[in-house]
Amino acid sequence: MKKLSKQKLKALGVDRLADMLFEIADKDEAVEKRLLIATASDSDRLAKVRSQISGLKRTKKFYDWRSIDKLSEKIELLIEAIGQLDVPAKKGFQLVVSFYETDNAVYGNCDDSSGIIGDLYKYDARNLLIRFGSQCDDKPWLAEQIFQLSQTDDYGVRNGILSAACEFLPESETRKLIGRYCELGAELDEKEDTDDQWSRPSCRYWTAAEELAAGIGDGPLYEMTKKEAWGKADFNAAAWNEIAELYLKSGNAKTALKKLDNIQSDDHFKSYETEKLRIAIHRELGNSKEVAAILRRKFLRSPSSKTFAELADVMTKSTLKLVIKEMTTKFNDSPDLDLSFLEFALSDLDLKTAERYLFERVEKIDGERYYKLPDLAKEFVTQDSPLAATLILRALSDSILARGVSKNYKIAVGYIRRMDVLAKSVSDWRQFEDHSVYVAGLRENHARKSAFWSKMK
Questions:
Q1: Does residue 286 form part of some domain?
Q2: Structural domains in the chain (count)
Q3: Do 325 and 317 meet the contact criterion of CB atoms below 8 Å apart?
Q4: Is residue 280 part of a domain?
Q5: Mean pLDDT, to the nearest integer, of 141-164?
Q6: 200, 187 in Cβ contact below 8 A?
Q7: Domain that holds residue 104
Q8: What is the pTM of this model?
Q9: Do 365 and 392 contact (CB within 8 A), yes or no?
Q10: Interval 148-164 mean pLDDT
Q11: 3-state per-residue secondary structure call for 336-373
Q12: Is 87 exposed, middle or buried (0-12, 13-18, 19+ CB in 10 A)?
């Protein structure tokens, strides 16, 4: 059946569409509620919204994980109704603030382990906050509403309102808000001194100031407020990444690079993000040699089609050939089996290189790597290397049988049946035992696993 077309629906005519909607609404309560909202007068809709917000604040009914969808639908319809109101922006903003204030009552009476209720507050309601806030001219009043609303957030569903505020408040008002949070944070720090930075009452005010500073792209202010939020603790790599990223976004790539230099050499937390950020910074600064050097190290460490393509974009073909040779030598000289290199050799080098690398390290195949080995076996089959595929499938089967978990025996049987087929295509078993010898070995070593042999029949 073809997809619905708005033009075809219009062609049905008003009367026929109305009859169809009425029939659907009679069978679907959710559709009926939506149509009632859409067809109500503005005054009736406003009264209904206010009543529903008050009802949520007084709610006593508990919604467990089985009934949480009903509460979700109820809140979703309420947010939708607020969005459909034809009211002044200031009044609309007030209604969204009132909705946010239902969070304690709602979360005190529901099991939101799925997160669907939280998403309605964090995203749907936040979008309305931005919409009405952008249309409201009284910016100081908006700032005060945001300040009051941010004072409590027991369930973490208001944590997006500050970043939202940066989208409709002028920078001058945002800076005033930051100043208020900083003052409150400093006052609390003077009253109470503790070594646990995250339990300090002042921490939430410094964090609020930090979020707003990020929203206006003020790197020095962001770094200062983050430092106050962390208290006596030193920044880790993640924190320096966040600081550097803000400097980069605000057009100060040189300072961003200096901030990354503060990361301790033994701090590997978020190392992938740090490397990615360094590349972006050097690109912004026009340091093509630095970009190539980072991508080279990345490729040598973890060769893949992706890292190879990145490197190929910044190197000449002759230089690239030298790097590939260096990388191949590095992995061939190591006695270990690196599946990333094996995968790269199959996809971007040649079959002989991949086969030779695998055959020399068969005893190093770890059958526990079941998340990657089956795909490698499949690729070897695709490239007409049944022996290499068989050796990988043997490792997978041996691992399952060694663990002795009977519910997984059918998987091992599947691998062996695939080997039965592949064996017919192997013309040279090289130094490895042929398939019949391998199966005979299974019968000898796992003779007492009756559950497995019953599935092999």
A1: no
A2: 2
A3: no
A4: no
A5: 96
A6: no
A7: 40-169
A8: 0.83
A9: yes
A10: 95
A11: CCCHHHHHHHHHHCCHHHHHHHHHCCHHHCCCCCCCCH
A12: middle
